[in-house]
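pasting for ref. prot 1 ->
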Amino acid sequence: MVKKNILLVSILLFSNSIFAVDIVNKDKSSYRIQYDDAGTKHDEVLNPGKKLSSICGECTVRISGLGSFQAAGSDKIVIQNGEVKVE
C-alpha cells in the first residue's frame, strides 16, 4: 500500500511539472510579475530576455503596466513589444 501511495504521489508531482505555466520576456524592459501559486504569493522582476519556468499549474498572472492574464497547464505567457500573448 505504501509503495502505491509513493508511486501515485510521484506521478502527480511529475505531471504537474510537465504542465506548468512559463513566462518569457522578449521585450527590452523589465516587468514586475505577481502570481499566486497554491496559496503562496510571488512578486518577482522579470528582466529582458529572461524566463520564469513552471510558475504554477493554473493561476492569474499580473504584469506591471500590462494587465492580468489567466494561464493554465502548458501555457506560455510571452511579453514582446509591450504586449502579452498567452500561447
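and prot 2 ->
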Amino acid sequence: MQMQSRYNIYEVIHKALRARLSRTLVAIGQVDVDDPASLRELEAEVNTTLAMMHGHLTAENAFIHPAMEARVPGSALRIAEEHVHHEDDIQLLREACAALLAAAPDLRQGLADRLYVLFDLFVQDNLTHMRHEEEHHNAVLWSAYEDAEIVAIEQALVGALPPEKKALYLHAMLPAVPTRDRVRLLGGLRQSVPAEAFDGIYASLCTLLDTRAQRRLAEALGLSAAAAIAA
C-alpha cells in the first residue's frame, strides 16, 4: 500500500479527538458514583469532550465541506448527514450525563452504566466516521486542490476559532502527535504571539508531556533542555 505524501488536513485533529474520546470513555467506566467530586470531574470531562466534538463538526461544515462541494458537488453529503445525527447524539449524551449528576444515590450506577454504553457507541461511530473522512474526503481534496490551497482552508478554519477554543484543541493535539507535529503546531504559534505569551503557553503545554518528550520538543524548537524541564 502506497502511503500518501499530500497534506492531510484531518491527521492531527483526528488523532487528538481519538485520544480524547478514549480518555473520556475510560473516565466514565472509572467513575465512583458515591463520590460527588468524582461525579463533578466526570461531568466536566464529558461536557468538554462533547464541546470539542461539536466544535469540530461545526468547523468542518463551515470550511471543509463547502470547499469540497465547490469543486466536487455531492462529495460531502454523506458526512454532512452523519453530522446531523452526531449533533443529536451529543445532545443525548449531555442529557444522560446531567441525569446521572441529578439522580438519587441508588439510581446512579445504572445511569452511569447507561452513559458508558451510549458513549461507547458514540466512540465507535466517530471512529468509523473519521476513517471515512480521512480516506474519502482527503481523496476529494487532493484531486481538487493543491496542498497550499488545503493549508489555506485549514488556516481559515483555525483563524475563525475563538482563542479559548484554539487553546482547548491545542492542549488535546499536542500530546496526541509526534514531535515533528508538535514543532509545526508550536512553530506557527511562536511566530504569531509575543515571546512572553509564548513562554506561558509553552510552559502550560509542557505539563502534558513526559520529561523525554519535553526534551525532544525543546531541542527541536531550539530551546534549552533545562528550560523545557523548568516549564
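The two ends are 41 Å apart (CA to CA).
The chain has ten helices and no strands.
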